Amino acid sequence: MKIVTIIARLLLGLTFLVFGSNAFLHFLPMPPLPQGSAGLYLRAFFESGYVYVVGALQVIGGLLLLSGRFVPLGLTILGAIIFNILVFHTLMAPEGFPPALVVTVLELFLVWRYRDAFAGLVRP
After folding, report:
1. I need a labelling partner for 95 at 20 to 30 A (CA). Which of 40, 75, 86, 122 fits?
2. For residue 108, what are the contacts with CB-CB under 8 A and spacing of at least 6?
3. pLDDT in tens, 25-44
4. What pTM value is reported for the model?
């Protein structure tokens, strides 16, 4: 189970390091914005510059997972981002739902494996 945990941690860390870095370096081609509310949401996201904040948090969270030192902190930072990715693809852009679900499952698996670090949050 330890090897599966390491693989999940590295996959999630690399995913967010690559896609977070893309916010700054633009090495992945950007498809055209979708129509409707998803396009309006993403347009506001890019025009406001908020994409840089989220990109920086993705890079930080990814690096924390890859380093293996502060994994619970990395999972906490990425947890909010993953929740928003899942909700966005559930409500506005269902074509991206499968990758969002994979990332969510990886996050939940790692939270479960590092549950001792989060125990203080659920104790009365």
Report:
1. 75
2. none
3. 999 998 899 999 999 999 99
4. 0.93
